[in-house]
Amino acid sequence: xxxxxMVKVQxxxxxxxxxxxxxxxGDPGCEGLGTYNMxxxxxxxxxxxxxxxxxxxxxxxxxxxxxxxGMIREITQVIAENPVYTLxxxxxxxxxxxxxGEKNYALLADAFAIVVLDNAARSFEEEGLSLLTKVLAxxxxxxxxxxxxxxxxxxxxxxxxxEEEFCRLKQAYAPWKQKVKYLLCGHVHSxxxxxxxxxxxxxxxxxxxxxxxxxxxxxSCDVEHHVVHFTEKNGxxxxxxxxxxxxxxxxxxxDGILKQHLEQTVQGELMxxxxxxxxxxxxxxxxMPRIANLFQALAASEYYHARxxxxxxxxxxxxxxxxxxxxxGEQFEYEQMYRMMREYAKKHEYPLxxxxxxxxxxxxxxxxxxxxxxxxxxxxxxxxxxxxxxCGYVMTGDAAPERCPVCGGAGRQYEVFEEKEA
Length: 422
What we know:
By secondary structure, the chain is α/β, with parallel strands linked by helices. 38% of the residues lie in helices and 17% in strands. The chain contains ten helices and 15 strands. Strands 1-5-6-7-8-10-9 form a seven-stranded mixed β-sheet, with helices on one face. α5 links the parallel β7 (144-147) and β8 (180-185). The longest helix is centred in the middle third of the chain and has 30 residues, at 256-285. The relative contact order is 0.09.
């Protein structure tokens, strides 16, 4: 029988031998277990597979049902390369103990310990605080990581437990405070490091959920998905935060047959997306809004299908480098491919194809110019962008021309994209 990678904790104190490192993954599943998010989690599992064990710092699932717990356990079972322990997050309700056992427990390695406490309901359980006191009182325990899901009060966010709850925690560790080397938490879909009560606090929520803004100083665009490695060497316990590359996890695309089928599937889903979107436009113009609404919904569904399949294949550039990485493709289209196809269509008297390639080439040239501007994201200044729905030409500026310079479409029809206030 295959050994379960996700450990169901049966005892409150677990002694481990040969453990010198722990990889920590924060918040993989609270926004859903779709392929797009789970790709990040899979990459995180591969990265923490370099450690002796993995700890998930809460919010494994969007809701605590057997269905979602079964999904996350199956993915973990296939990908994880070491034992995976969990702590309970605020999304991990319902059947949590049936799958993962104790909510408060301690892992005792040779040179350090990690005490897992449940504060998913924004309060520490007496059972957990008593366990923390018991472990800290052990003579053999010299350095401890205290791990929980919701942060204690800090200098960055207000989304944390109350000062009263933090006082209860401090009272539990106070007699042995010198043994507490780190406080570790998740919950916030970002990361930050702080000092609270003179102890380093590490907050990590970058294991799958979308990264969010924390403050003006910690913006989502400045934080990558990541894991935390804790390593004991020569008795000292240190940590390192490692960013996950945007092209993390490559297992599926290494299979040539599967890769080919995935590419075909993406194409099929995108064709369905386009087909339904075009029919929605026809229905809207014919005065049938309910039918238009249906096909807009179907088109959106097909897009998300395509996105999920493409996520398995995609090898994106790093976020800040991405705009510049798209320029070459746009230039190739308008300088070579579309020009060549336009000439072919003209030679063989296919006027509609010739017109489509001419219009697209003009738009692609504008795309390349805008992407070059966007390569410096912070300096990008275009606040309003117009797209002609007739031919797809792109225009910028405070005011757009009354007629599209490519096809003559009326300006009143332009689709306007502008920065919305947060």
